[in-house]
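Hi C.,

You asked whether I'd gotten around to modeling the 420-residue construct. I have! Everything is below, sequence then structure, no commentary in between.
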Amino acid sequence: MNNQKQQKPTLTGQRFKTRKRDEKERFDPTQFQESIVQGLNQTGTDLEAVAKFLDASGAKLDYRRYAETLFDILVAGGMLAPGGTLSDEVTRTDYCLFTANEDLETMQAYASVFNKLIRRYKYLEKGFEEEIKKLLLFLKGFTESERNKLAMLTGILLANGNISASILNSLYNENLVKEGVSAAFAVKLFKAWINERDINSVAGMLRKVGMDNRLMELFPANKRSCEHFSKYFTDAGLKELSDFARNQQCIGARKELQKELQEQVARGDNFKDIITYVREEMKKSNISEQTLIGIVWTSVMSSVEWNKKEELVTEQAIKHLKQYSPLLKAFTSQGLSELTLLLKIQEYCYDNIHFMKAFQKIVVLLYKADVLSEEAILKWYTEAHVAKGKSVFLEQMKKFVEWLKNAEEESESDEEEGTD
């Protein structure tokens, strides 16, 4: 028997030659830049030829690695240094967006070049959006003509869905806003955007990224008013955008008012204080009484946890509305406001099924409290009602309306006798 221990196998180091493709390539855009510039110099102003050249070059050149360099050259003719100036000692081309004609047709042709490039090489989408964001931050480094071309291009790209409206965040840069660069750029951008689509499309995209309420921020704080915004963009030929921004501001003001009013009602604040506050907000935000009565109704009705049983909720509603009738009365001084309130009650009772049988009793209560007049009720009954629950509510109101008509006739008869 061999007593010697068997020697265990050992691992000895062995060198493997690293393949060249596995070595980390140094970032050197010089050769890439020379190839792109040379191709653009050959194609010149023929943008169809430019698009074909870029399409073919993607198979040979590393677009993924040098995307920023590629877009810098296409826009500015060469690589951009921080701030927006062209880097020194680099190859440049005179055939780029910034040297093109400053007109919408040329910018549409350039937008087509970018669109084809990104559709062919989908991985460039993110890099392209980042490039536009960067260019917007560099606006002060460009000439007015260059900014105008970039604005028109950006508007067209937004209209075509090539980039997200979130890129506009770059325009809220404090320095750009302070010097008026953002507002001037926005004029050209929105003109091109609306020209390609319409204001509804623009509004939709702005809402999607939560920027529909931020347009005022294109101006410095001391000029951030609805009046200034309206005049600035209306004078620039963008009344549609001005009207949209004004409407958005009004919507925002109404939402804030409703939120505050609901809190005041829930706390049980004094009616006099509530009415004073609401009237001040009406004046400040230019809110009509017809709009306001809807806000007041919603606030009053949402301040209660309603009973789920139909037979109990009516009694609860009458008690609650009797308490808040002075608040409703304060904002129904016009016939249109009364009709608006009636329609709000109709819609509320229809949308909240437990209130279906409460409609007539609510209306009668508000009539007795001088919130609703017989003229408004008769007008609602004969022509101004909406379709929601129409047959049910008209039937509920039939006897009361007949009583109102008889009372009106008796009153007229008494007046005639008095004049005899």
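If it helps when you're writing up: The radius of gyration is 34 Å.

Thanks,
B.
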